[in-house]
Amino acid sequence: MNSRILIVDDRPKNIQILANHLTNDGYDVEYATSGKEAIKILEKEDFDLILLDVMMPGIDGFETCKRIKKLENKNNIPIIFVTAKTDIDSITLGFEYGGVDYISKPFKADELLVRVKTHIELKKAKDMLNYHKSYLEKREDFYNKEINKLKKNLLEHNKHFESIGNHYSEILNLYNQAILKIQIQTSIPLSLLKSEQLNEKQTAILFELEKAIKNNVKEIESIHQYHEIFSLREKALKLKDVFVAKIIAEAINSSSKKINLNHLNINTNIDADIIIKADEEYIKAAFVSLLDFIIENSEKSETININVTKSDDEISINIIKSNKKFDKDVILYPHKIIRENKKQNFNLFLSKYIIEIHNFKFKIGNNNEGGAYIRVNISK
User: Fold this and answer.
1) CATH number of the domain at 239-379, please?
2) 161: alpha, beta or left, given left = phi > 0 and alpha = psi -120 to 50?
3) Residues 263, 253: Cα–Cα separation, whole Å
4) Is residue 91 scored above 90 in pLDDT?
5) How many CB atoms within 10 Å of residue 288?
6) Residue 207's pLDDT is what?
7) Separation between Cα atoms, residue 52 and residue 72, nearest integer Å
8) Domains of the chain by residue range
9) Strand order in the sheet with 101-104
10) Residue 244 in this model has a pLDDT that exceeds 90
11) For position 216, what pLDDT does the model report?
């Protein structure tokens, strides 16, 4: 899906010149010939960027910008002023009203396209961060509620343990502490239960507690893992020599059940001596998640080729699917997976995130002849 740009100018000739440059560069363009018309369009539609003329009859560009910033969910759209007024006061006023940049008339096509591309990419990056922040806030709220439910459950059952003795009171306290620290133990040793003479009701209560905790363990662990991964930028990666063949083999082994269930054919061509500098724990997690994503987006009996090549300048890891293509939205907008809450696509987001904080290059796409690919390039 192409980025959408709204041109606001009272002169049709100016609109035509701008639109020609932008459409030739792959953008979808709409236009308005006044500030009021632009506001009416923006009340119904969304855009990735606005090119706004300053000197217009009626409400000028500065006032139009001011009103746009007051529209619901529109204050994040970058506005670039296109103006012949290049004095300091006019430029300062434009920034004060919420503009992010200005282009002076007459403009150069190359300068226009560079500035447009820069601000659209900045907007997409901010959108992705907002989706990420919103997702974590929602999940944190959800798990806080779940933990509170468990704590309430434990308190309700506490009276049933009073007759069991100090030994089982200690077990109860351990569960309380584990839940508060989000480090829940997933089982109660059966040998421990058998070593005491419990009645049927007491045993049932213990197993009910165990079941309630188990139902929440995987989700809590996942959120903890995602939090750790997303906080990597705040930490120093523990870089060391890592064998690529080993990482790929461990990822395949981790997904072996899914591979067999879907009758997938995995072919690898990797020299055993190829080494990269990476944080072994996180780069392994990236390729495990990446392979899970590919499996979820593959047809039964599809062939997946994993080739690793080495040149003087870089190492290239290529994962190529033979049949099914990736959804275009996944390729263009991987941040949308958070909003749509697709677990398999979230695996792609995590993988891409980890790979790129290593300063490796990540690319995903479809082959013209069919199938799809994911490529990771690592400069030496």
Assistant:
1) 3.30.565.10
2) alpha
3) 15
4) no
5) 20
6) 62
7) 19
8) 4-107, 131-230, 239-379
9) 28-32, 4-8, 49-53, 79-83, 101-104
10) yes
11) 52
Please state the separation of Cα 343 from the chain's center in Å. Answer: 11
- The span from the first CA to the last CA of the chain, in angstroms, equals 34
Give the span between the Cα atoms of 329 and 57, in whole angstroms. Answer: 40
Here the tokens at position 162 are 């009073």
Which residues lie below 8 Å from residue 229, measured CB to CB, with a gap of 6+? 282, 285, 350, 353, 354
Domain 4-107 matches domain 239-379 at the CATH topology level? no
Long-range contacts of 271-274 (CB under 8 A, 24+ apart): 271/245, 271/308, 271/310, 272/243, 272/245, 273/243, 274/243, 274/244, 274/245, 274/308, 274/310, 274/315
* Residues near 291 by beta carbon (within 8 Å), at least 6 away in sequence: 251, 252, 254, 255, 319
* Overall average pLDDT of the 62-66 stretch: 91
Strand order in the sheet with 314-321: 265-269, 303-310, 314-321, 372-379, 361-366
> Taken in order 181, 187, 191, 192, is the CA torsion positive or negative?
positive
Number of neighbouring beta carbons within 10 Å of residue 290:
25
Distance CA 49, CA 77 (A): 6
- What is the token pair recorded at 101? 């940049």
Q: How many Å apart are CA 356 and CA 376, to the nearest integer?
A: 9
Measured in whole angstroms, the distance separating CA 189 from the mean position of its chain's CA atoms is 39
Helix (H) / strand (E) element for 170: namely helix 166-180
For 4-107, which CATH superfamily applies?
Response regulator (3.40.50.2300)
Would strands 79-83 and 49-53 be described as parallel, antiparallel, or unpaired? Answer: parallel
Chain centre distance of CA 146: 24
